[in-house]
Amino acid sequence: MSTSNILSLLFILTSISHAASSNVIKSVPGFPGNLPFYLETGYVRVGENDEVQLFYYFIKSERDPEKDPLMLWLTGGPGCSALSGLVLEIGPLNFNTSACNWHSKSPTFQLNPSSWTKVASIIFLDSPVGTGFSYATNPEGYYTDDITSSRHIYQFLRKWLMDHDGFKDHPLFISGDSYCGKIVPIVVQEISNGNRAGFEPAMNLQGYVLGNPYTRKEDDNKSKFYYAHRVSLLSDDLYESATRINCNGTYVDVDVDKDNVKCTRILQAISYNLDPLFDAHVLKPKCISHQTWCQESIYYLLENWANDIQTQAALHIQKGTKSSWIRCNMTLAYAYNVESSFGYHQNFTQDFIRALIYSGDQDMKISYVGTLEWIKMLNVSTVEDWRPWFVNGQVAGYTTKFSNDRYHVTFATVKGAGHTAPEYKRLECFTMLLKWFAMHPL
């Protein structure tokens, strides 16, 4: 027996003894009556000694769960809970904001007609450890990084699929947004490597989906300035001074190159112009107090709901594992050890795989111009020129497509959306995914 087959057998035996602890949820606080879709929550143990307990929400496709694709959804940060993606972006429940105030302790839900679960079964995963309701059984387990957390996700998928073998053969798509622009490609690579090595279960990996993806810090900083100038948030003189005259196109942080006095002053002037903006959506107001409505106001509803004792009981959260639920836990013991995910995308150009990459065109945090730039650097032929795409007869954004007969990338902007796009334009993003799944032009 080969080494890979022995490892697979050991993994299967271990998985049987450490199967996912799961519960079917019939109802949740804030939604009247029983849920009209299948919701399951649970923990899966990963790590060298099973010290990490990753929490997930699983929703079956509302169309044809026996045949529809399986998606894994990861929310960015790192440290932002997948519950944020479920409720605020692509899941079947949204807050009924017309029926409550922005600080309600008992927010109510309404159904989202543009949920991605209309066409796919989706696992929403709290990763890395310490995110959402995921936890570690010992302090050392909380120390993680880009590579380790990605391997935990791959371990999670293997164990989850062993426990849900009816989904093993479904087309699999790895998806996520924001910082997961780094993590998703690593996970895709892990799956590809595992499939080639003969690890069980083999996964029917078909592609990946990235929204407003973080790829490389320096490039994303450059594109932020470029975007700001393009949409008239920076003057020509200020932009030219930073890019060609005083900063030599390096776009260093203000505190980094203190010897370059002229560049420092230019960057300070740029900050003076851009800092007052809500960079996740430049047309929306920035939060200045709890009394003023802003996009983040809805985050308070999510935190109030998730921290409610009845909610945690309904979701079967293990008692004592979390002192409080935080939408984005920015205190993780996390090491950023992958500078760029670009090399992974380059690897995929040699594989038979599809990618959908989209950006809200009002997002200055990770602008579409930088994302489109690195996609073009993959040197894959343009097979569809830049053009508008439509929803209900109206322009929903712009799209272009690249292909080398193996690797196929569809890039799309979502008009009027920010960071992240489905938070602002649910119908448009759902229509985009529906067409892409069906291999139809946007």
TrEMBL record:
A GO biological-process term: secondary metabolic process
Q: Signal among the record's keywords?
A: yes
Residues of the signal sequence? 1-21
State the Gene Ontology terms under molecular function: acyltransferase activity, transferring groups other than amino-acyl groups; serine-type carboxypeptidase activity
* SUPFAM superfamilies hit by this protein: alpha/beta-Hydrolases
**Presence of the UniProt keyword Signal in the record:** yes
According to its UniProt record, which protein family does this protein belong to? Belongs to the peptidase S10 family.
The protein's name in its UniProt record: Serine carboxypeptidase-like 7 isoform X4
Q: Which organism is it from?
A: Spinacia oleracea
Q: Which gene encodes it?
A: LOC110800459
